[in-house]
Amino acid sequence: MTVEVGDVPEAKRYEARVDGESKVAGVAEYIRTAELVAFVHTEVEAEYEGAGVGSALVRTALDEARAANLRVLATCPFFAGWISRHPEYRDLLYQTRSKVSD
């Protein structure tokens, strides 16, 4: 099975398709600013769960964020969990530069 992932900026999401089908197998929705991309929701169709569609969505989205020099805010539990299992992507995570003192 081949999973193809593409960014659909007008829909503010990445879409995954399997084996060249036109049907969308999964999506990763985001909010993007000039410096940050927040991944807010990921959904994979039931028939494709466990087939690597979600991982392909995350890996592609994070690789493109890295290429665009964007920080990542993983508010989506799927993205957060995936990044926690793939430490090579942790450097992308947004960390506040604010310093609050007491």
TrEMBL record:
Gene3D superfamilies: 3.40.630.30. It holds the Pfam family Acetyltransf_CG. Residues 6-94 form the N-acetyltransferase domain. This is GNAT family N-acetyltransferase. It comes from Streptomyces violaceolatus.
